[in-house]
């Protein structure tokens, strides 16, 4: 095999190795972003649960405030 063919193969192998390392770095960064977004989504779900709408508990709040309302009407 001529020397030019060997040089071409070495250069091609170097280019492929550099591209593979670059793609590996991209994969690692994307995995880090994925874990960060998963944690963020968990936090957003917790906030959504803690700030649920009020109509679900209005009935019990009104029952607890009935004595206060009765007292205010006597004043």
What's a quick, concise take on this entry?
The chain is mainly α. The chain is built from 2 helices and no strands.
User: Count of helical segments?
Assistant: 2
- Report the mean per-residue pLDDT as an integer: 90
Quaternary structure annotation: single chain
Q: What's the helical proportion of residues?
A: over 70%
Which band does the percent of strand residues land in?
A: under 5%
Q: What Rg do the Cα atoms give? A: 33 Å
Strand/helix succession: HH
Low-confidence stretches: none
End-to-end CA span = 107 Å
Structural class estimated from helices and strands: mainly alpha
Q: What sort of overall outline do the alpha carbons produce when their principal axes are compared?
A: rod-shaped
Biggest sheet overview:
none
Please explain how this structure is put together.
The protein has 75 residues and is mainly α. The protein is 87% helix and 0% strand. The chain is built from 2 helices and no strands. It has helices at residues 3-50, 58-74. The protein is rod-shaped.
What attributes does this structure have?
75 residues, mainly alpha, 2 helices, 87% helix
Summarize the helices and strands and which ones pair or pack.
Blueprint (H helix, E strand, L loop, with lengths): L2 H48 L7 H17 L1
